[in-house]
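Tutorial, part two.
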Amino acid sequence: MTKRVIFAIVGWTILTIVFLLVPSSSTPRLIFAVLTALIVLIGILVTNRKPKFSETANKELDKTEPTSFPVDALFAATIDSMREGLLVVNRDMRVVASNPQAYRLFGATPRAINRQRLTELTRNPEIYKAYLDALRGVDRSVKVDTVGPERLVFELRVTPLPGQNGSGPSGALGVFVDITRTERLESVRQEFLSNVSHELRTPLTSILAFVETLETGALEDPESSRRFLSIIRKNASRMHGLVDELLELTAIEGGNVRLRAAEVELRPLVEESISSLAAKAEARGIRLVNEVREGTSVYADARRLERMLVNLVDNGIKFNKANGQVTVKHESGARDRIIVEDDGDGIPQHHLERLFERFYRVDRARSSDMGGTGLGLAIVKHLALLHGGEVTVVSELEKGTAFTIHLPHALDE
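Running the prediction step on this input gives:
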């Protein structure tokens, strides 16, 4: 009851009492009749106004109510949008429900996959055993691999579906979670740790061995002492270089290296690069040739480009034949091409695809003897990508190898 209605009732009651107390005459009765009519009119207006307000409020509430969807449609949309594969079988091991991800997983169409027996769909014993255990009432979680053009790894979780009246499971529901990327990253991590451990263990073992030799009396022999100290220094330098290159490669891959690209005179830069390796080349009888024409310029970060050139020329020196040659030249076109080629023994074709991977070596023993870390070409690759370009390699056995750095022009940036 609103305040207006209460006020009208109270007012009407007071007027009635006054009417009964005053002497009977036409004037007071007329006034009472008029006031009574007004009170009744106010009551009617208030009464009529209330339903209108309620109807409006109800309409507003209706607008805010959530739209109802059929449960079946919501369930179907949820299943179809799952990133995981879903496969449901009945007691006879026949597929009764699946989703699009399961079609891709098993390489089948909805019509082909549904109503098939599980053994017709896959020959993987782990999948079959997991569903079989679920039909016996046991939850199973296994890791399975698919066989096909690409190896995929899934974590499969199979749960029994309860039957009616305690008659045991009526079927089994399996969810396939794709963990291929996670497995690959874990494999890369383990391989990386293994390679780093191996690369550090070899020089560290050598250092410790010679230190112990010196401590046990070799210090008394000046000639042996100098030789041992030279070996210790060489292995320590190798470890230092490995750590430096690891830190540099990590910074490049992590996006923490910023380029300061500008037009760079290429011939002087090449001259500086090969000059820094002149002593190493002379020790092996390797001739270093700069065939870049005067006035040639490229758009690059000078310091990073020099690092790429040093790595490639150094590689050409290490794996060249005695008295061989390493040549640096430039070709122009849609992109600038800086070519570093040698006339060594060449690289077998099956190695070329993995040549730019970290720690990958064609000849591990020879590379270690040369003091290589297995990271030089990986650094070249990532620095080239950072410039918006790439590095490629072609090689022919007994004729040599050519690495090419492809750099975009300034206008392409």
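Confidence is low (pLDDT under 50) at residues 50-54. In part three we will examine how such features are distributed along the chain.
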